[in-house]
Amino acid sequence: MSSTARRLRVIVVDDEAPARALLREYLGRRAGVEIAAECANGFEAVKAVTELHPDMLLLDIQMPKLDGFEVLELIEKEIPVIFITAYEEHALRAFEVHAVDYLLKPFTEQRLGEALERAAGRVGAAKKGSVPLEDLAMAARPEGAGRYLERVLVRDGSAVHVIPTARIDYIEAQDDYICVKAEGKGRIKKQTLARLEGALDPARFVRIHRGYILNVERLANIELYAKDSRVAILTDGTRLPVSRAGHARLKELLS
Amino acid sequence: MHPILRRRGRLGPYLAAWIPVAGLLSILLALAGEADWDEVLLIAVPMTVLFGFESLATWYLCLAAPLRTTAMRRLLAVHGSGAAVSCILWLLAGRAWVSLLERSSWFEGATRRYAAQVPLLFAVGVLLFLLASAVHYVLIAFEESREAERRALETEVLAREAELKALKGQINPHFLFNSLNSIAALAGSEPGAARAMCVDLADLFRKILKLGSAEKIPLSQELALADSLLAVEKVRFGERLAVVRRLDEGCADCLVPPLLLQPLVENAVTHGIAHLVEGGAVTIETRRRDGRLQIVIENPVDPDRAGGGHEGVGLDNVRRRLAAIYGAEGRLAARREGGIFRVEVALPVSGGPA
């Protein structure tokens, strides 16, 4: 143990340079806080968190490529987060993903101090009640009725792949993981098929089998394989099993 | 319905107001006739109460013959005949009451004594009736002025609301909050830049307030407003935001509805540039062609984002305004082509050299 208390290492994420400068100034005056990295977008944030293992995240929500919620979804580990945004309307979602605090821009140095103290209490606290990743994924969905996932995010080490749902061919279940097939590539993500199914637009994606969700736009043909057993043939020639219930769902959607 | 009958609890005080009248009437009857006080009170009090009710009817006469629009002759006729009819009814009721009283030996000869007082009672009745009419006219005038006041207030509130709504529609709160945050940031490290941004922001709001109420303004002013907006955004986005202007000189004086471009430019930044890591350029282009003014605003969008990257509401508002002002002559077309979002506004040229 060193004689001084360990410094709190934070990562600052905001796409606007002045906003980062403000945080740098405020944090610079606080003893025991160290900025491990400054990130200007969500990709950088995911990479920085993966590589630097900070104690805490100061996270903007509206950012290019990945928004704050998507960053959290991809980090896949519990880390205290303080959201900093000009948007009041995301507060509810922020607390659904167990944010420590939610600062509205502009904010005072004192307000930031309070948030940091609250967050410091959580650092190193028992990892109880860590947010199930599935919930994060659900919370990352846009708000409002009739809005479905527009893209699926997959992390590969510190790199992030954004797959727009329109480009997905099909999704295959593999134990606790799913494999998202798009444009000839498959990307693995820790999520269950059922969870993802619930977040996808049902007018486009159909659970054709216990282990498969199909983008119906890729469907070329359905062939009877044996009694009560069919295969879906995709536009690129891929063959996927279709269960009886899956066939009923497909028929209902296509009729 | 009469305002006194409209609410419970008003009738009591109203009838109480008639007590002095009953007193006066009793004194009058006692002095003018031979009846003793018992008889006078027994006649005057119920008859006054009855009159109190009867005079409520003048409200309807007053409503039927409004003071301002009715000729004097008609006014006299209405209230004169009203007074006569109601007094006759009143006296008949009084008579019926007196003959009832006479059944008791105490009041022998009461009918005769009453008959002798009829002319006096009639005169008093007519006077009271006309007085009641006058009071009702005052009451009506009072109600009318209060109603007029309320309506004026309501109109004012509605006008203010419309103004506020217009303002709210023009100023995106997030834009304001983010800008204030930038000022807070600059205040520490670059006080000069913070001051400059305050001036930019004030400049922008002043323009919005001033131009927003005009019907049409020259395009040059609308472009200056867009420049103010972009100056503020430039502080937030820095290198990520570039602006390209391709402005046709001949368009500067063309008249356009105020705050037409502002929402389009703001869209280009918030839904276009803000979602790009590297940012990009907002292009503003104006030109005149075949008697029409064309304004084109382009911005790059994130190819991974679905939709046009633009919320429809802002565009719809502009489209509706154009339709309201120019009909089929005013058009807005928006489309996404590759990584570029393009909004094109066309409207008939008015103002400036032909």
List unreliable stretches of 5+ residues of chain B: none
Mean pLDDT, all residues of chain B = 86
Please give the share of residues in helix of chain B. 55-70%
Secondary structure: number of strands of chain A: 15
Shape of chain A: elongated
Radius of gyration of chain B using CA atoms only? 39 Å
Structural classification of chain A = alpha/beta
List the chains of the largest interface with their residue counts. Answer: A-B, 26 and 25 residues
User: Low-confidence spans of chain A: pLDDT under 50, at least 5 residues?
Assistant: 126-130
Number of helices of chain B: 12
Strand order of the largest sheet of chain B: 2-4-5-7-6
Task: Tell me the radius of gyration of chain A.
Answer: 22 Å
Q: What's the arrangement of strands in the largest beta sheet of chain A?
A: 2-1-3-4-5
The succession of helices and strands of chain A, N to C, reads EHEHEHEHEHHEEEEEHEEEEEH
Q: Please state the average pLDDT score of chain A.
A: 85
Beta-strand portion of chain A reads 25-35%
Terminal-residue CA separation of chain A: 69 Å
Q: What is the element string of chain B, with H for helices and E for strands?
A: HHHHHHHHHEHEEHEEHEE
Q: What structural class is derived from the secondary structure elements of chain B?
A: alpha+beta
Description of the molecule:
Chain A starts with 7 loop residues before the first strand and ends with a helix. Chain A is α/β, with parallel strands linked by helices and 255 residues long. In chain A, strand 1 (8-13), helix 1 and strand 2 (33-39) form a beta-alpha-beta unit. Chain A is elongated, with a radius of gyration of 22 Å. Chain A is built from 8 helices and 15 strands. With 354 residues, chain B is α+β, with helices and mostly antiparallel strands. Chain B has helices spanning 3-6, 11-17, 19-32, 37-56, 58-64, 72-102, 110-170, 173-189, 191-212, 219-237, 261-272, 312-326, and strands at 217-218, 241-247, 255-256, 280-289, 292-300, 331-337, 340-348. A 5-stranded mixed sheet of chain B has the order 2-4-5-7-6, with helices on one face. In chain B, strands 1-3 form a two-stranded antiparallel ribbon. Chain B is rod-shaped. Chain B starts with a helix and ends in a 6-residue tail after the last strand. The mean pLDDT of chain B is 86. Chain A binds chain B through residues 15-19, 21-22, 25, 40-41, 43, 62, 64-65, 86-87, 104-107, 150-151, 162, 164-166, and chain B through 173-174, 177-178, 180-186, 188-189, 235-238, 274-277, 302, 304-306.
